[in-house]
Every structure is written in C-alpha cells, then in structure tokens.
Amino acid sequence: MNLRSIPFSAWVGIAGIALAIFCAVFAPVIAPFGERDVVGDIWLPAGGDFLLGTDNLGRDLLSRLVYGARTTIFVALAATVLSFSLGMLLSFTAAVVGGFTDQFFSRFNDLMMAIPTLIFALVVLAVLPQHLWILILVMAVLDSTRVFRIGRAVALDVAVMEFVEAARLRGEGSLWIIFREILPNTLSPLLAEFGLRFAFSILFLSTLSFLGLGIQPPSADWGGMVKDNKDGIIFGISAALIPGAAIATLAICVNLVVDWLMKRTSSLKGGRGDA
Amino acid sequence: MPEMLSVKNLKIEATSYPPGEPPKVVTLVEGVSFDVEKGKVLGLIGESGAGKSTIGLSALAYGRGGVRITGGQVLLDGKDILTLDKNGIRSIRGARVCYVAQSAAAAFNPAHRLGDQVIEASVRHGIMSREEAKKRALYLFRVLGLPNPETFGDRYPHQVSGGQLQRAMTAMALCPNPELIVFDEPTTALDVTTQIDVLAAIKHAIEETHTAALYITHDLAVVAQISDDIMVLRHGKTVEYGTTKQVIEAPREDYTRALVSVRQTKRDEAADQTGAQLKIEHVSAGYANGFKVLHDVSMHLPKGQTLAIVGESGSGKSTLARVITGLLPPTEGRISFEGKELPRALKGRSNDELRRIQMIYQMADTAMNPRQTVRDIVGRPLSFYFGMHGQKKSERVKELLDQIEMGSRFLDRYPAELSGGQKQRVAIARALAAKPELILCDEPTSALDPLVAEGILNLLLKLQEETAVSYVFITHDIAIVRAIADSVAVMHRGRLVRFGPKSKVLSPPFDDYTDLLLKSVPEMEIGWLERVLKTRRMESAGN
Amino acid sequence: MMESGPLTGPVPTDGSADGTHPRPAELSGVPAKPNPADGEIGGTFWRRFTFRRPLAALILQRLGLSVGLLFAVSLMISGGIEALPGDFATTYLGQSATPQAVENIRKDLGLDKPWTERYLSWLGGAVQGDFGTSWASKNSVGEQIGKRLGNSLFLAFFAALISVPLAVGLGMLAVQFRNRLPDKIINVVSLAAISLPEFFVGYLLIMFFAVKYGIATFPATVYDSMSFTERLSAIALPVATLVLVVLAHMMRMTRAAILNVMSSAYVETAELKGLSAFRIIAKHAAPNAVAPVINVIALNLAYLVVGVVVVEVVFVYPGMGQYMVDAVTVRDMPVVQACGLIFAAFYIFLNMAADILAIIANPRLRHPR
C-alpha cells in the first residue's frame, strides 16, 4: 500500500483517532487529576489550574474527558467487535448455506430491523439490570442486524461468482469457501463497514448515556458528561459542549477514514490490492 | 461526390485513475482518417478496446466519461463540428447525426412511450411538426417490419422484445432524416435468428432513406453484408481501410487476413461414435419456482470425443451443463458416467466423481478468485484431489503451465495481471490439474477476440489428443461446432431438436429450427444476406 | 477506465443473456413471469391476480407484510420482556421488599396471570387505543399518549416541511456541480453533520440562540393554552436541530440517487439527441429519479420519528419521546411497551410507504405487458 495515496482528509481522521486512543490508553498518566476527585468549585471557567474548567460537581473537566475517552472508546469498540463477529458469522453462514437457514436468519433480521434501534434499546434496557457488559451486549446485538444485512449482501455478491461455484464443484467444504474464497474478496467493503459501525456505536453509546441509560455515574464517559453538565447551559456555561465536541470530533475522524476506505473499495473492485 | 463525413487524423485521449497511483493520460485513438459519402455505409471493425465506439461517438462530438477528442478534424458536410460551441453541437446531435446504441433496452427511457421517444428529436429540433413526425415514425415502423406499426408507438420499452427495441432505436435515429447515423454494434446483444431480421431491416431502411452510416461491429461477417467500405482497427489505430470487396476477398494486412480466415481449424469427426462415456437419458429439469427449463433430453458422448451443444439464449444448453455437474439436480431422468449412474445432486457425489468431470466457464474473469495467484489457482486441485504439496506440487503446476503454453513466469501473477486469453488458459490448466476424463466447456471462447479464441480452440484440440479427455462444448457459434465437434446436439426452448454425428446433423434434410439456425449465421461472403432473404421469400411464396 | 476491473471484463455476446436462468427481478417480490410458451397461466386465484395486476398484487403484499411485521413486533415487545430476566415487582419495590409485598404488587399489576393471557388482553386494548394504566402515575397511558403524540407529530411535521425541500434542493445542487467546489463543500459539511450527535447540535443551538442572543426560547415547553404562533416560536430550536440532523443524510442519499439516474444510458441517449440540459433533466432524468428520491425521503422521515426522542429530552418538550425515556428510567412497563409499539408502528408504516411509492413510480410495474 502506498502511503502517499492516502488523501489529506484521511490523515486528519487517522490523527484524530490516534490521539483519542493515546488518551484512552495513557489516561492515568496524562490526566492532571483523578477521574472522580472533586478538586474545586463547580463550573469554574476554563484556564488557571483547570485547563477546561470544572464540572457540575467541581471535578476537573479535562481529566474526566481523558478518562471518558477510555470508557467511550472501550465500550464502543467492544460492542462493534462483538456485533461484527456475530453479524458476519450469521450472514456468511446464511449466504453460504442458503435455503431454510438463510430464510430463517433473514426474516428474523427483518423483524429486528423493523424496530428502530434506539427504541429497541430503550425497551430492552428498561427491563435489564444496569451492567456494563449488558450494555455492550445490547448494543452489539442491535447493531449486528445492520452488519448481518450488509454482510449477507456482500457475501451473496461474491457467492454467486463462478469461482465460488468452481470451488463447490471441486467438492470444497463450506469453511474453505467462506474463508478462502469469499472472505478475502470482501475485506475492503467490510473494513469500511466496520469503521461505519464504530462511528455509529460511539454516537449510540453517547446518546444512551445522555439519556441516562448508558454508562452509570460516577464513571466518566462523554455522553454522560453532557448529561451531567447540561443544566449549566441555561447559565451560559459551556461545560456540556466540550464532551459533546469530543464525541463529534471522534465520529467525524472515523467517518473521514471510512469515506476514504469506501472510495478506495469502489476504485479497487476486484483488483488485487493489499488490503 | 462530396463526403458527408470526413474524419481527419483523429486523436482521442482519456485520463485513467489507477488506484494508488497518480492519474495518467491514455491515448485511445490516434491518426485515424476516413470518409463516408452520402448513401454509403462504412464499417468500423475491431476487437473490444480497439476504439471503434469512441470513434463513432466522435461523429457526434461526444466523449463518454472522461474521454476527450484532442486532435484532428471531424468534418460534417465540410464543416468541422469539433470547433462548434455547445449550442452548435446540440443542433447537430439528434438532427443531422443520430446514434443507435448497442443495448436499446438500456438506451430507451423506461418512463416514456416508444412513440414519443422516437419523434422527440425531430420535434424538438423543429425539423417537423408533431403530426408529421408521427406519420414518419409510422412509415419507419413499417419499413423496419415492426408488428402492429399503428399501435407500436403506444407501448413502453419493457413491453416489447429486444429485437423490436433495436429496430425501434433504428427508427428513432432515422426519424429526423439525418445525414449520418452511427450504428454501435446494433445486433451484438441479439440471438442469431433475431439478428438476421434486424440486420435486414437496417439495411433496407438505409437504402430507403439514402442516409450515410457508420456501422460498428466486431463481426466481420456481419459488416460484410451491410457496408460499402471497411476500416479495420486495432489498439486505436487503422490497420486496413478499403472497399468491402477488397478487404474481404483480398486483405492486405496479416491481421485482417487472420480475421477473414478465422476458424480455419478443422477436424474430421470420429468414425466410431458408438461408445458412451457420458450418457444423458430423458433428463428434465427446472427451477424451484416450478419453471421447467429442460424437457426430456437424451444424448451421449463416447470417450475422448467432443459433443457440441448448440442453441440460442434460452435454449437450455447452459442449464444442461448445470444438470451434468449436479448443481441443478434433474427432476426426471438419469445421467451416467463410465457406466455408473451419477448421484443427482452435487452433495451426493464423491470427490473422485467430482474430479473426473471438470468445467471451464465463459468468463474466465469471474471463474477465478481475483485474490489468488496462478500458483494457488492451479495448485489447489492438486492438493485437494491428490494431496500434493511442496516441491512436487510446484513441479506439477509448472508442467501444467507448460502444457497450456504459458510457462512458469506466470506462477505468481494474479488474474488481473493476465490478458483475457491467458486467463482462459489458466482456467484450462486448473481443469487439467484434476486429471479429468470429461471437461464441460460453457462458451469458453465467446467472450474472447477471434484470434485469441482460435488459439484456445487449438489448445483444447491439442490437449484432447494428448490426454484423450472428452469435451461437452456448449456454444451458440456454428463455426466452432463445424471446427471441433464429433457429435452435435441442437437445442431449442429446452428441448433437444436434433442429435447425431456432426456430418449428419449439419447436412440436409433439416428440421425447421436447425434450418433457420444454420441459415441465420452470417457467412464471410458478400451478398450472403440478400441470398438468404431471397430464398426465404421464395419459400414463403411457395408455401 | 476504458477497461474496467477484471470482474467486469469484455461484454458477453450471447451466453450471459442466457434466459435459462431465472431472471433477477427488478424488485424483490416481483412475480416471475412464466414463459408463455411453457406454462399455462392458471393455478390459484392469487397467481392469476399477480399476473394480471402485478402492481396491485405487490402493494397488497407489502401491506400484508407490514401488518404481519407489526404483529410480530408487538409479540416481541411483550413476549421478549417476559423472557428477559429481572422481576418487575422486585424492581418496583426495591431489593429490600418483603416477599409478601412483592406478591401483593404482582397481583396488583396482573403479573400473576400467564403471559399469553396478558398479551392478548394488552393487544386487544392496544388496537382500541387502550394501553392500560401507568404503574408510576396510575394515569391512563392512552390518554397521555394522545396528547403527547400530537406534540411529537407537530414537531416532526415542521422538521420534515423544512428539511425535505432543502435536502432535495441541495442534492440537486450537488449533482449540478458534481466534483466541483460546491459539491465538495456540501460533501465535507454533510459528512461532518452526520457525525454530530443530536444533543450536541441541540445544546449548541441553545447556547447561541437562546442564551447568548436571546432570540429563541428554552425550554421549548408547549401548553394547551398557547396560540399557534407561540407554539411555532417555541419549537423553532428543536425543529432546527432535527432539520440539521436529518438534512445531511437525506441530501447525500438524494445526490446518490440522482447521480445514478444521470449516468444511465437513456440520459446519454437524450444527450445524443441534442436536447437542452433542462429538458434532459426535467423530461428524462426526473421521472426516473422520483422513485428513489421519494424512497430516500420516506426512509429519512422514519429516522426523524426516532430522532425526536433525543431532541425532546434536550429541549424538555412534552412529546412521546420524553414520555418514553422517563418511563424507562422508572421502569414503568406499560408506558414503555405502548411507546415502543407506537414508534415501531410509525417506523414500519413509513418504510412501507417508501416501498409502495417506489413500486408505484416504477413504469415497468405500472404498465404491465
């Protein structure tokens, strides 16, 4: 792969993601204060000891932002990886096995997709106890419906190709067909889809936290921080906007990379590539 | 006589954007010059990528995608249309120069009635009133032999057949009384038996209206029927330019000679055709929705021989291949191989049964995994069927590449880095790797240019001599059948029409369909179309 | 660009047009036309009907599917909740409740009956607009929803009224200036816009327009006694938020749909007829672009209905979304179920509308052979 062929916009995206991941990994080293330490008055303006000011309880906003990167990225990434694994496994199985299995999975998926994701999440989270892993699981299962749809479409596109038929005629088993014939030819579009799902997961997690159903206090996460500080808005205190901006920036960065990946996929169509 | 269209020293370029590399400018056409007089037809012939369509569209000062005309002149009635401004060009398109596209099905707007689309250009350019245009359209529908010409224009594009659409497209081009029409492969997408009618209609309409025409095709036999002059193109350059008579009967260049004399390959049929390595008995098959595609088909093939299955699209010939492979289990009948009945479905067959019957596809592009190298593609059957690996496998792959006349330098190439002919050769090597006893060839040469196709056919014949493999060869091309078959099966609408040794099947007395099929295949001979039409008229008069 | 990727390759002459394979239908569910030479048209009444009136048959099919889907969703919302772990009575009273109290409350809420019975009575009520009583407030859920649904639709309606023409207009603008500066700007801005969470946009607007400049009101509360204009000014900011959120998506999809039509062979034919640019767009591109664009709009309206949830919470707007979120936090199940079902119904209905409009706009189906 040629580094110079990566456009500027994608570089911006990669840099942004790298920064966020750096914050997440080295949070305790970077953050000037602890995640939950009350260090000053409430809603102090930016500057002085507190680079971004303090929040509704007098905690350092910058420190919480750095720790929040940790929670937000970890949960979003875990949910995406899980949803992707689940969606891919089921969709490829459906595409390769076909017949009744395919019909069953697809119809069930249609049913799941008939309910808007957020509404579905609200209903389910109303019933389930509040645990981090339950949150991740719910996000993953709901998101995997979208992955299933695209995965099945991509796999079917490839599965009807004659080289797959040739492999079947040779007598190859399903595993060989999925992993050696189909998967290598679907990597690029799926990589782009992974980015898209990740961006969606960040936004979705933030929305849930904002509504008070995501990550529970006192853990710092960006959506929850907006919720904590939203009452300050009326007094002209912008503390809620800072984590909001962080969410938006990270989502934009991921989308910039995805945009490039998608363009690359469409110009690569079947070419060799090194993806 | 003054030239209607005179193209001088044309140069056409395009910018290509290879992934991961800076864009580069590619020259598509260079130094092409020709003249077309009023009432005359110039045939532009060449392989795909020879720049024929690009040249044709330059007569309308049009470039598809990023294609630009960067040099030379296109003189229409003495005036260079390349120097015209936007409005000037618009006043020519659809009025003085019209275009007939290869796929009329895509080129007609699905949202409007055919009649409205046919007269649109004439009315919009103010050439005639709506009423006059309608009258002319009716006249043209008649000339082109369209059914129910009075009501034909009320239909929508999806309501008529492909052949009719192509004729309607010709009517659309003829309607404004243009000085020049560009026909871009107007019959390529049609079946042979339909092609002949459209071809005759186009020829008749050109004669009636005295328009000049550019006729673009890859089929020299077709162009010989319709054009006065022929220009042979290759890689965007002129190879040969002369009268049709001279080009067909006394070609000057080697390339043209090869085109004219293509399919010199000839092989006599085997004398003894009694054995039956493959036996198909009373096979019927259909799809899950109850749509029956094959009706009671029986045929057989002796060991080491070639059975050609001919038919048009929809005849069921490809379905029969799917039935033999087990991809589509037959609903009735049985298929036996070497005296043993084959399990109907793919799943029921053992690896050895699968190994003995291999398949070659029409599109080698899609038949090979783009992410595997030639080594992987050819090597896989070796490790799968024979458990070969390492040095031994590598040696055998090299041997196979030598057998298909390619050599080991291709070992680590990806399919995208091979030419069309090379890809098909690799596909053949993959089939050979399994040491098959029968190879099903589904139109393996019809996507290839004539010279390359010839090479593939010769290779297949050579391999048959070396390994005594049998072929089931599916094709729509009678010339190929004549060249390589021992026995022939003619199929029509899912039924077997005729089956037997080549010499019997392809000589009279014929049944109606075989007769029609054989007579519809254009021959490399001037005046063939007139002759066929004449005998047809006599026959229908006689009835 | 002349020779496209290896997967496309040279144009097949005859073989690939082989009609023996079942033709891929234009739209899923289009009845395959049997070859007149091979099968007699007949069989059941439905098969004859699909053959003669494919359009009506498809629309009926779509309607039936939506009703079935809605039924399945109701089953899932109700049945799924039963299957999930966690006992409401315990949650309701807290962990320290005595077994007797839990038992009483179970009886009180009707949780002691088998769930099939509860489901059927719930569904029967829901069809008539009776969703039971809220556990938290003991009010009738149906009554509450009646009021709040109106408010939410009021909000969504104005958001749609502004965003649809704007999105289609901007999409066409982007197509007109394809790959030039206006298109690129629209592309980058819309890419950024789809990455913004609704609440961020909402608070940003509040910060500027309500707090800094004071030209809009916050919170966006509406009362029964408010006049129409007062209501309008109250919802200005939430509507603006919704528009911003949904606009980028709709515009990008519109652009793609129109571009797809503009690159078709029949538009090239129109161009080669020497027609004016206006006529090409109005007469040849537009009739074919209508279906996909309508589809895009309906899909985004479905999204709008969901987007309402967050925006209502941000602006403290008394709509369905806020009602539902509040109910979820206190685990007021009748309210959650009712709101979930109604949101899903809107979503399914709009998706169905998108499909049906696309079917109607397809000339192949409007004018059968």
Please state the average pLDDT score of chain B. 88
Q: How many strands, what sense, and barrel or not for the largest sheet of chain A?
A: none
- Beta-strand proportion of chain B: 15-25%
Q: Tell me the series of helices and strands of chain A, N- to C-terminal.
A: HHHHHHHHHH
- Tell how many strands the DSSP assignment of chain A holds: 0
Derived structural class of chain B:
alpha/beta
Strand order of the largest sheet of chain B: 6-7-8-3-9-10
Helix content of chain A: over 70%
- What is the SS-derived class of chain A? mainly alpha
Question: Which spans of chain A have pLDDT < 50 for at least 5 consecutive residues?
Answer: 267-275
Number of strands of chain B: 20
Task: Give the chain pair forming the largest contact, with residue counts.
Answer: B-C, 72 and 48 residues
Major beta sheet summary of chain B: 6 strands, mixed
Quick check: average pLDDT of chain A? 85
Q: For the CA atoms, what is the radius of gyration of chain A?
A: 22 Å
Number of helices of chain A: 10
How would you characterize the overall build of this protein?
The complex is a heterotrimer of chains A (275), B (543) and C (369). Chain A is an all-alpha fold and 275 residues long. In chain A, 71% of the residues lie in helices and 0% in strands. Chain A is built from ten helices and no strands. In chain A, helix 3 (61-97) packs antiparallel against helix 4 (99-113), helix 3 runs antiparallel to helix 8 and helix 8 (174-210) packs parallel to helix 9 (222-229). The longest helix of chain A has 37 residues, at 61-97. Chain A is elongated and about 75 Å long. Chain A starts with 7 loop residues before the first helix and ends in a 7-residue tail after the last helix. Chain B is α/β, with parallel strands linked by helices and 543 residues long. Chain B is 39% helix and 24% strand. A six-stranded mixed sheet of chain B has the order 6-7-8-3-9-10, sandwiched between helices. Chain C is an all-alpha fold and 369 residues long. Chain C has a domain at 145-366: MetI-like fold, CATH 1.10.3720. Helices cover 70% and strands 0% of the residues of chain C. Chain C has 15 helices and no strands. Chain C has helices at residues 45-52, 54-83, 88-93, 99-109, 115-127, 141-176, 181-194, 198-212, 228-234, 236-262, 265-272, 277-315, 320-330, 333-360, 363-366. The longest helix of chain C has 39 residues, at 277-315. Chain C is flat. The chains are: A mainly alpha (275), B alpha/beta (543), C mainly alpha (369). Chains B and C meet through strand 1, helix 2, helix 4 and helix 12 of B and helix 11 and helix 12 of C.
